Amino acid sequence: MSQASVASLKRAAATAGDLLELTKPRLSGLVLATTGGGMWLAARTHGADLSVARGLLSLISIAATVGAANALNCYLERDRDRLMARTRNRPLPSGRMEPWVARGFGLSLAALALPAIALGANLLTAALAALALGTYVLIYTPLKAKSAVAMWVGAVPGALPPLMGWTSVTNRIDAPGLVLFGILYVWQLPHFLAIAMYRRDEYAAAGLKTLPLSLSDAAARGQIVAYTAALIPITLLLWSFGVAGVGYAATAVVLGAGFFGLAAYGLMRRLERSWARQVFLSSLVYLTGLFLVLMVDRPR
């Protein structure tokens, strides 16, 4: 193989890597896990025969929609990303990619993913995916620089994936699916607030409006406590509806109590950045543990 061919392959691989980075694969991995949890729970609850091919097509298409939203978010926020240490090396702010490439990639990915969801799952799930995409790109992204209210708006598309997993099997929105949405919605709020606290200076430099910057760290600590407390009764609704077992209920209480305890400790001691990072990491452990037990513990 000639040196020119080798160089061309390296450029193609680098471009592919940059396109993948635009989709924020770690975030997409979380979406896959929660979507898969919703699908699994719906299939088990309703005794549905979910084929591997249909399930994979739905999962991949939903993840692609999220990837499209993330790519378009990177395109719209490229100037602000240059101002933050954790984002300045992304493909657009670093100059490795032209903005039109990212925009075209995001739009093309969305144009492919949404019809694929309709074919692999159903029109309801595709409509929810379109809602998530539109809310994230057209409302949440520009609102971040204007108001701290963006956090509550941004939690809507972030909470839709497990509901989409549920509707991809059931083709309807019902109580357990809405509880899955509620769990993810409320979980994101302390998660986002913790990030906003320990990355306070970066967000301020980028001109982003967050609750700690708009009000205070004390207000953020108080809300973290409130939301972690609310998670306990919300997660137990799945047990009360008979779609999760006693093992799940016990785990939800233990995990919820631990998460709430960490939040309350920070409030009482008026802790700041190091504690906020602990809350962020604990939120990931909490959600992972909750969904793992939800998927393996059957109601009796």
Provide an overview of this structure.
- There is one protein chain.
- The protein is mainly alpha-helical and 300 residues long.
- The protein folds into 2 domains: 1-145, Tetracycline Repressor, domain 2 (Orthogonal Bundle); 174-300, Four Helix Bundle (Hemerythrin (Met), subunit A).
- It is built from 13 helices and no strands.
- Helix 1 packs across helix 3 (52-76) and helix 2 packs antiparallel against helix 3 (52-76).
- It is globular and about 60 Å long.
- The mean pLDDT is 92.
Helix/strand/pairing category: mainly alpha
Distance between the termini: 62 Å
Strand content: under 5%
Total helical segments = 13
Number of separate domains: 2
Descriptors:
300 residues, mainly alpha, Tetracycline Repressor, domain 2, Four Helix Bundle (Hemerythrin (Met), subunit A), 2 domains, 13 helices, 80% helix, globular
Give a quick summary of the entry.
By secondary structure, the protein is an all-alpha fold. 80% of the residues lie in helices and 0% in strands. The longest helix has 25 residues, at 52-76.
Could you give the topology of this structure?
Layout: H1 3-22, H2 25-46, H3 52-76, H4 78-81, H5 99-120, H6 123-143, H7 150-170, H8 175-198, H9 200-205, H10 211-214, H11 217-240, H12 246-269, H13 273-296
Helix pairs in contact: 1-3, 2-3, 2-7, 2-13, 3-5, 3-6, 3-7, 5-6, 6-7, 7-8, 8-11, 8-13, 11-12, 12-13
